[in-house]
Amino acid sequence: LGADSDTLASYQVLKAEDLTVSKEVTEENRHGQGSDRLAWFWRINSAENSQKSKWMNELNWLKAKAQYDYWSKELKLVQHEMCWTVQWFQNQELEWNTLHSLFSQLGYTTQLGQPAQYYRV
User: Fold this and answer.
1) Long-range contacts of 21-24, Cβ-Cβ distance < 8 Å, separation of 24 or more
2) How many C-beta atoms lie closer than 10 Å to residue 24's C-beta?
């Protein structure tokens, strides 16, 4: 198209790998995602100083904050799930012990107390 050499140095040929969706968007829990590099057109202001630019610092900060927020929520969820699991087992133990006591009071010999031990936390 008749571009000068400075323009051609800044604008590179688009390749298929430049147009792929970032794995950080589609696989946020992926190992090693901090080593990913953005396609050249995101760093067009100056290819050699792009990682040091203010815009890039803001982008990296936003990415880090998003990951921190995600993992903070995940941690809270896992902590709640652990409490719910323990409470479920305690409830199952209580139910089996209650059944065992009820049938024992009625004069039946049962093995209903035995399953309660499987739910003891």
Assistant:
1) 24/63
2) 15
Identity of the amino acid at 91: N
Round to whole Å and give the CA distance between 28 and 73: 14
For 2-48, how does the pLDDT look when each residue is reduced to its tens digit (9 = 90+)? Answer: 778 877 777 777 777 767 766 665 566 666 665 556 666 666 665 45
Beta-carbon count within 10 A of 75 CB:
10
pTM, to two decimals: 0.46
Both tokens of 43, joined, read 């760093």
Neighbour-count burial of 83, counting CB atoms closer than 10 A to its CB (0-12 exposed, 13-18 middle, 19+ buried): exposed
Residue with tokens 């080593």: 35
Which amino acid, 14? Answer: L
CA dist 48 to 13, 55, 63, 118, Å? 17, 14, 21, 63
- Cα end-to-end distance, the chain, whole Å: 74
CB-based contact 97:113 (threshold 8 Å): yes
Look up residue 38 and give its amino acid: L
Average confidence (pLDDT) over 95-102? 86
